[in-house]
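Chapter review: from sequence to fold.
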Amino acid sequence: MLIYEKHLPISIKSLRVDLLFLFLFIGAFYLLWMGSYPLFTPDEGRYSEVAREMIATNDFITPRLNGVGFFDKPILYYWLQASAISMFGLTEWALRFWPVLIGIFGCLVTYVAGHLLFNRKTGLIASIILALHPMYYGASHYANLDLEVAVWISASLLFFIIGIESTSKNRTNFLLLSYFFAALATLTKGLIGIIFPIMIIGAWILILNRFRILTKMRLFLGLTLFFVITMPWYYLVQKANPQFFDFFFVTQQFSRFLTKADFNNKTGVWFYIPLVLAGSVPWTIFLFQSLIKNLQLVWQNRQKYRVELFLLLWLALIFIFFSIPKSKTIGYILPILPSIAILMGRYFDIYWNTATQKTVVALMIFCGLMSCSLISLPFISQFNIDAKFTCPIIFISGMLAFATFVIYFLRKKSLSSIFYCMSLVSFIFLLTLIHSAPLFNEKSSKSLTTFIKSSLQPTDEIVTWYRYYQDLPIYLERRITIVADWHAADIPQYDNWQRELWYNMPYQDTTEWLIEEPAFWERYKSDKRIFIFLQKDMLPHFRDHLQKHAENTAYYVGPASIEHAKLMIISNKPWENN
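The token string follows.
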């Protein structure tokens, strides 16, 4: 280990050089094309709009979504997004600035941990693998909270294990960093920010039977730092919104995991197994190999390989924790990726100068099968692949086929050669994905909002018909009016946009912009110009209601509606640029 005091000067020198190199390389890689595609809905539109409204209302305590109190998540991510908007303007690049920067930071922390806990090579390999991991890369280019909380939790765990294993004078600093990042995680997504570190560290201490570690953890100082960071906002938001504690802690923090309340994305306990395997391509084979090798080491001597045990517990406990609830999303599992990267880095370090034939053959078969599967997708009618995806699919499958042949020629070489090959494949694969991101974003309303924005007057009203398009307020930079049945008895039964807004409607007057049909038709017949966004397949429904409620059944279809496959704009009055 390089964390002992006598090695510290050499460690600091190499750390600085490597950190600079990694920051420049990963930074250039991650910044490329990050603002080239519209916001994905619902998450990117929803969370970015909360930050925009903070600036618009000058209220940095109470989060709001389309003017309604929004208490699903804590405040830190919105503060970061609001700062990016203030610095760079309201652009996709600005809204993804902090996710990308935090993603880079996570790679740097992973390098530091790998270097100090094992050696320089392990740290470098782990950092590169994490940066090139498809799920981590994708999350770093997606403006929601999942990547941020994953990095804060990972940093907390990594600085803890570095601090506990260190015999240098920096032990206290590392441990305080652990408490600091646990506080940031708690300010980003709630109780999991502190529950995960407690759960993993507690299990590690229990298995090792090393309870004396508790005396080295600077508990009083660390917890004081934790509460000084987290408590002020929780106190202020509860003071301003008396409903906050009940909704945030009971409904969002406990009910989602401990009850059968309805939440989105219901899947089986198996959900994260294929997700992690598919999301780790092309590193999947090495994921298996590294887990097997590190499990063997821990089984042989868990006291000697206590760091490997810590990383395995980290991976297993978070994986199990999120597999139990029925509600699951891809982003929940992100906190396990840094531990996987370090375990894989350790595996590569052990076998760097050799390449076991079983691993090489398995990797060749895996890449070959992936290539054949991808190239066949556009030609299988059951999958109904849109023609616009054909070029990226063919390119990626060709790249995997190329990797198969390269690995064949490298089969008798060292594992280092295969690592460089897979890194290049991952690099090109991820750049292909982000360059193709606009093809996958079919729900964005950006093309319509860009057109209509030049026609809007301050007195005009934007209305959505029985639907809330999460990116509309942020692209139009204004609150919108939503027509829906806000007194429907079944609203609490569905985890959707309507329930998100409905939860906090009783605590403020929303009658001006969350309206039902009678109020809408009064406005439709008034002198005010109204632009209505609705799904194209809802137009017959709108016509039927129009005939019942308005004498003049005229409406005007926006020319921009042809630019969106499913969404259209109509108005109660002629458009100036019609």
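Two observations follow directly from the output. The two ends are 71 Å apart (CA to CA). The chain has 25 helices and eight strands.
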